[in-house]
Amino acid sequence: MEGKLMRAVQYDRYGGGAAALKNVVVPIPTPCKGEVLLKLEATALNPIDWKIQKGMLRPFLPTKFPHVPATDVAGEVVKVGAEVINFKLGDKVIAALTGGGGLAEYAVAKTDLTIHRPPQVSAVEGASFPVAGLTAHGALTQSVGLKLDGTGARKNILITAASGGVGQFAVQLAKLGNAHVTATCGSRNMDLVRSLGADEVLDYETLEGAALRSPSGKKYDAVIHCASPVPWSVFEPNLSTDGKVVDLSPGASAMWTFVVKKLTLSKKQLVMFINSPKAENLQFLVELVKQGKLKTVIDSTFSLSGAGAAWTKSIDGHATGKIIVEP
């Protein structure tokens, strides 16, 4: 592949949204030690991708410009770097890329964040998991302490934006953990969220939904908050005595609440969760798909040349499930 070129989508400055994305032709990258080169079959977009473009992780990401965004991919191994023993040419895999590179025909992935993709899992399904699936998994197992085999104490859990990328997985995983799930979404997605297993579904545009009140009067042991910022005053009356809110996109107000609750030793806590991908957890999710216990809702698919439209749809924030680009 050395010296050959590929199509990619990149931006060369902060800001600009979809209009700043450029379709380019660049050299195919070369895998280093412990890396594999993938011919990409599917790439999933996540809100963090356009938030990085906006400069929300400046100066850490991007590490340099121009930058090819997106990290969640599925593809085929076409070249292996030195000391790679677990993968060979032709292997179908799922990977979490480090820093980006997914909006392209080829990308380099580290083997410690790459797993084999079984034939029962499509490339589109596989690309959906690294950020969204692992965030849902980590928030529930690490922050809430839910046992996904259903052996732990039953918890009442609220999941906001339950028809979105993270929310769809959080509902299904929480039900595997024997939780009672209340979920919020728009009216058009209420039947979908029920089909994922939610026990109660609230339309966030109604007064009851905006107040996050359980229709059965339950108090929440935990909230997996996947939506835009909500004041602590809305969460607090709905929490059990030692309930917690796991905020997946905390703003300044949430960070202040986090500090105050810690300093005052409040039993009700706000927890900020940051996804730290691990191959074994990704493998766990893929096994659930193989067993028919977890499914992926796909909102839409786009070609690489149509990545700008996919980017705009992600920024809009009303996708039902995952947005996929197929190079």
From TrEMBL:
Domain Enoyl reductase (ER) as annotated: residue spans: 16-325
GO molecular function, one term: oxidoreductase activity
SMART domains attached to this UniProt entry: PKS_ER
Domain of life: Eukaryota
InterPro entries for this protein: ADH-like_N, Chloroplast_QOR, ER, GroES-like_sf, NAD(P)-bd_dom_sf
A Pfam family recorded for this sequence: ADH_N
Annotated CDD domains: MDR1
Protein known as: Oxidoreductase
